[in-house]
Amino acid sequence: MIPVPNPTGLLLASLLVLLAWLALAALAGGLLSLAWPRPSRYWRQRPWRAVICGLLLVALSLPGLLIQHEFRQIETEQNARQAALHPTLSEPLTLGELTLPAGSRVTLNTLEPLDWQQQPQAHGLQSIKEAELSEPIEVLGLRIDALDLPPNHYFSRVRLVADQALEGWQCAAGEWAEFAREIEAQYRPSQWRWKHCQLAAGNQRGGLDWPAGSLVKREIYGWRLRAADNSELSFDGLLLRSLEMSLSNDGELLGWSGALARPLTLGEWQHAAGTRISQDQPGHWLLTPQLKEPSRHTGNGRQVGNAEQLRQRTADGYLLGIQANPWPDTFIWD
């Protein structure tokens, strides 16, 4: 392993290298001065002074030159190590259930045969964690051109060559499809479980045609969807941004949430664009105002801010209640 100097040592080494170059510049200047009559006469009259000054400048430059030589050796070793960690396969390689074609550019996890506990570990070509394939291969019925197989993690990813179907969803070409797995199933796709992908155009679910770039994720109960960034969808009589939807395995709508794409007057309440709105039970909408854009009562002017939520009836906007907002007005897609 290449040692990493501490900051103080690195600063001292840099100063010594700088001193070396200054000393060499001074020595070169002294030698060039011999081309002029006056300096040349001065040094010929004082040869020992010239020798002492020259030796002193050489001595001052030696530590820095040695350190610079070490730096170059370290850089050479690092470059060689990086090249060794990113080889190109000269012949096909089989790892578990995967066969990578010759010419594929791969990234290795480690070159070390022993781990930090001095125990044997997969290394070299047996520790591939990424691969840019020289030609597409088929994995789980999918045509792919790249693999991401992080060790000691619980997922693997494949990059799709074309729009392809996964469990009834059309996933987009050039994007990654992610699979859940156990750590030991790194090279065994038969034990992977599809997790999520970015959608191509043409996926119709929950009464919507989901735009390309939307995300779908497999859940225990069914599916979770998030609309593509900057898309606006018309749903349930509303124009929504950042629409998220949960569906059962049978495609039944379980719930949804989004943000109003334009201001909405619902019953006696006015809601600004950006207000979060969701349906957690049939016939009810739950609205959460933004931090700087509270909802307002059209009659008495009462305001409701982000710390509270309004529950209104979808049929006529009747206010069913105002409750505390238990969560920030954010959504996390994990």
Secondary structural class: alpha+beta
Q: What is the helix/strand order?
A: HHHEEEEEEEEEEEEEEEEEEEEEEEEE
Which consecutive residue ranges, at least 5 long each, have pLDDT under 50? none
Strand content: 35-45%
What is the oligomer described by this structure?
single chain
Round the Cα radius of gyration to an integer and report it: 33 Å
Number of strands: 25
Let me know the average pLDDT: 87
Distance between the termini: 36 Å
Can you give a write-up of this model?
The chain has 334 residues and is of the alpha+beta class. Helices cover 22% and strands 37% of the residues. The protein folds into three domains: 79 residues; 106 residues, no CATH class; 72 residues, no CATH class. It has a 15-stranded antiparallel sheet that branches. A four-stranded antiparallel sheet has the order 18-19-22-23, with no helix packed on it. It has a two-stranded antiparallel sheet with strand order 1-2. A hairpin with a 2-residue loop joins strand 7 and strand 8. The protein is elongated, with a radius of gyration of 33 Å.
